[in-house]
Each structure stands twice: as C-alpha cells, then as structure tokens.
Write a structure and sequence with these properties.
Largest sheet: 8 strands, mixed
Order of helices and strands: EHEHEHEHEEHEHEHEHHEHHEEEHHH
Structural class: alpha/beta
Mean pLDDT: 90
Strand content: 15-25%
Helix content: 40-55%
Radius of gyration: 21 Å
Length: 374
C-alpha cells in the first residue's frame, strides 16, 4: 500500500476545509438552490450513516470518534441524520457480519475502520453492488472504497522514531531498543513501522521486534516479557510501542520485571491513561491525532457523498492513496503532533479532549503541579 501526499498535509487540509466552508456558505452545493447536486430531496437530511468500529481496547473509538461523528452528522442534517454504530471487538468475522447487517438495513453510507483490511474487501464489494458508498475510516480498507480519511501514517512512525532519538541523545548509537508494532492485519501498522524504521534503522540496535496480533495489550505485555528475558532488563534503552495500549502493557511488564526507572516509551492516540503516564514520567510521548478533525471530516465526507454534493466531496478529499486493490483513492490526511509533558496544554486540553481535572486526579496532582499543569 502506497500513500502519496504531493503537498503539505496541513496546507491541503486547511485548503479542503476552507473550500468546503466557502462552497457551503455560497450555496454552491445546496441542492435546493440547484447547485449541480444529483441528490434526491428526500435524502437531504433524513439519512443514516453506518459506522463500523474495530475494537474497544482503543478507548478513543467509543469515547471520542463515535459521539463526534454522530454529533457532526446531526449538525449537518438539522438533527435528522442518524449514525448506526457497531463495534467488532477485534473480530474480523464479527465485523463482516455487522457490515452485512448495515447493507441489509440499507444505510446510506458506511464508514468502516477495518479489523482486517484484506478480509473486509468482500463486504466492501457487496456494499458497492448495493449502491452504498463506503469510506475507510482511520485504517485503509481494500476493495472499491469511495474515499479514505486518516493521518499520514508513515509520518506517525517518523514522529515516534524522532522522539526516541531525542530521548536517547548521544547514547543512541549504543542503545538497544524493543519494537512493539501494530497488528499485521492493519495496513496502518506497516506504515507506522516503515516511518519509525526510517528514523531508527542503523542508528540504534533493534534488539527485538514484534508484530502484536490485534493490537492486544495482553499480547504486547507477553512479548515485552520475552524481550526482557532475551535482552536483559538493564540493557533495554527504549521501547517503540506503536500505540498507547501497548505502551501501557510494556511499562507494566517492565515494572513487573523489577524496573525502578522506565526507559523512554512511545505511544499513539493520546488515551487518558497515556497522558497521565506522560505526566508521571513513565511514558515519554504519544502521538496526538485530532479526533475532532478526523471525525468531523469523516462525517462531512459521508453526508456530502449521500447528498450528491460532489464539489464539497472533492474539496474534502484532495489527497490520494493507493491500496493493494485500488489506485488514487480520494483521501483526507489529518496532521499529527508529538505530545509530551511540554505541550499537553496546547494539544488535548486546548482541543477540549480532556480537562486539567480529568488528567490531574489525586494520584497525579503533585506531578501536574511540578510540570505546571494546573
């Protein structure tokens, strides 16, 4: 799978959003004004978007993505549009069944965050045959999808790799690190790993590397225990963990092995426990990806597609990516940022993801005060 971003992601996103807002304000995509839309007036607001989420281990999906998408769809449709959601709980087989149920229910579009990008292809084709557009959300799905929204996933890995290099400093060349990569069934995992290796390879010693099935923390913890046994606790200088659930599992494994000081550990998703571990100094960083921008962008794309707002849809999808089965898939790639102790206020707090009260519970109050998070 190749992703191509011809111009700055941030600039393209700003242009897409700005163009879409301008078109809306001018009435260009308003079917009531005859702006070239082919939508049926009956489907203007009374629509249903199907949302297929991959798991509950990653807290962001149910806590942020689902409610944000539902709220945005409602806002775009004067409160008449609905989101029908299902969570596969890390089962590709369950997700396939849920996909078929969405098709049978005749939802107007499907947003799918695939458990297994390859296995989902059959269901995507069934939806296409039924005339239901499919937008891949967060993870690129195979098959004839209409669009894709996520982040520059190779950049995510690069950001994580650069953070580890910064943390290791002059000791990087002699350092042994452990890599806990994402699920091999998730195409994003390969991109994260590729980005990280582009920074780390030949600059540090990658002593052990694991691809963690289904992103499960319990498997990541078991892999980390193997790494400790093979390398030695005191010889592990850092841990590349592809997401926050696995970062927490790695830290638990290190503690259980007797670590009194945790080496730098990366993460991704800015889960609340991860942000608190960053406050406490147990986790070095996480990659913050704006849930709001991604969720709102997905809802905008789905509603525009359903309502036949082709100009709006094109304005929102100015990037392209390739999957193993399709080329030049219209895409929106949302920027990412490294979250550390230094910029918690400027990221998740500023964006309203968490409040200081959420983060600085009694267990973390002293550390919050020490780093000026009050």
């Amino acid at each position: 799978m190749n992703a191509r971003t011809p111009h700055s992601t941030a600039a393209r996103l700003a242009l897409a959003i700005g163009s879409a807002l301008l078109l809306t304000s001018c009435g260009v995509v308003d079917a009531a004004d005859g702006g070239g839309s082919t939508q049926s007036p009956a489907k203007r607001d009374d629509l249903t978007v199907g949302l297929l989420l991959p798991d509950k281990e990653t807290t962001r999906f149910e806590k942020f993505d689902h409610p944000l998408i539902a709220a945005r769809v409602a806002a775009l449709t004067h409160g008449k549009g609905k989101v029908r959601s299902a969570n596969a709980e890390a089962s590709a087989k369950r997700q396939s069944k849920q996909f078929e149920q969405m098709i049978s229910a005749r939802v107007d579009a499907i947003l799918v965050d695939a458990v297994d990008s390859k296995a989902i292809e059959t269901d995507v084709r069934k939806a296409k045959d039924a005339g239901i557009p499919v937008i891949a959300y967060d993870r690129l799905a195979q098959g004839p999808i209409d669009a894709y929204i996520s982040h520059d996933n190779e950049l995510v890995g690069e950001v994580q790799g650069r953070a580890l290099m910064e943390a290791l400093g002059d000791k990087a060349e002699s350092s042994k690190i452990v890599m806990l990569n994402g699920s091999p069934a998730d195409p994003n995992s390969a991109r994260f790993k590729q980005g990280a290796l582009g920074v780390l390879q030949n600059k540090v010693a990658i002593a052990k590397s694991y691809d963690v099935e289904e992103w499960l923390p319990k498997i990541a913890e078991a892999d980390m225990r193997k790494a400790v046994a093979a390398i030695g606790l005191n010889d592990i200088a850092a841990v590349y963990a592809a997401n926050d659930g696995m970062a927490g599992a790695a830290i638990d494994a290190l503690k259980k092995a007797g670590a009194t000081k945790i080496p730098p550990v990366t993460g991704q998703d800015a889960d609340l426990p991860a942000v608190q571990r960053i406050v406490s100094g147990e986790q070095y960083m996480t990659v913050y990806k704006s849930f709001l921008e991604e969720a709102n962008g997905a809802a905008d794309m789905a509603v525009a597609k359903i309502q036949g707002q082709d100009i709006m849809f094109d304005a929102l999808t100015q990037d392209t990516v390739d999957s193993p089965t399709e080329n030049d898939i219209p895409s929106m790639l949302v920027p990412v940022v490294a979250l550390t102790q230094a910029n918690i206020k400027e990221t998740v707090i500023k964006d309203g993801v968490y409040t200081v009260k959420d983060i600085c519970t009694a267990a973390y109050a002293a550390r919050c005060a020490a780093i000026g998070l009050t």
